[in-house]
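#help-structures
NK: newbie question, is this the right format to request a structure? protein is Egg-white cystatin
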Amino acid sequence: VSEDCSSYRFRHLMCFALMFCVVSATYVPPPHSTTKPGFPVPMNTDNPGVRKAARFGVYRYNNSSNDLFLFKESQINKAMVQIVRGLKYMLHVEIGRTICKKREHSSLDSCHFQKKKSLQQMLKCYFEVWIMPWLHKAYVPIALCH
């Protein structure tokens, strides 16, 4: 009886494994499905989520720099997003020095770029911004500018 039972289980297990392999081998994701969990995909640099993530990166840069003036994003050159317990944005952004001093302004939207040649400065940055919308949190683990 035990041989029959174990043989029966073995056959069921083999049948399941074979069926799994056939289904896995023949499964093709739909053409519109480009985002897979854990795999970075390119994003349009005009995407509102990308722009918001770039702004978080700029906030991080401004909070850690010793410059008297605020910087803001002038151009987003490349954007990728990865789905990992939220959205992780990987951004290549150019930022420029504005006319707004750090202690006087709260909104970057109203800050214009420096007009004086001696005060103009542009930096190329790489930001990684991890956004967890359901927690209303954004974390910038990497903000490298040069």
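mod (FA): yep, format's fine, and the tokens are attached above. The longest helix spans residues 2-26.
NK: thank you!
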